[in-house]
Design a protein that fits this description.
Elements lengths: L1 H18 L2 H23 L4 E4 L2 E6 L2 E6 L4 E9 L2 E10 L2 E5 L1 H4 L3 H16 L1
Helix pairs in contact: 1-2
Amino acid sequence: MAWVITLLLLAGVLWLAFGGDVGGTVLTGVAMLSVGALALHGTLLRPRLAAGPDGILARTVGGAHRYSWSEARLRLRTTRRLGRDNLTLEVESGDHLLVFGRIDLGEDPRDVLDVLTALKGQALS
């Protein structure tokens, strides 16, 4: 969806540029670059979290991080922001803490925790 919005904003930039509206062109251009950067971020870092028999692979802006099942601690955390409860999945290993929300996971964090817990149980058995 972000790529579609980026293309629509690009069309708006071109339309405003040919119309001679410099201020509108600059503002729409900034919006286009911002949404485009978010779209690129979402494309390059998918999937954010993957799991297998060996453990967890988490992709972040800083690179990929691997954690074995024995070193990874998983938990759900609920926070209240702007009057809404937000549920996140936390993966902790040593000094590293990775926090994944619903958008990062593409699923409800409770469901992802259930799957990860089952995989961890099978791997450690």
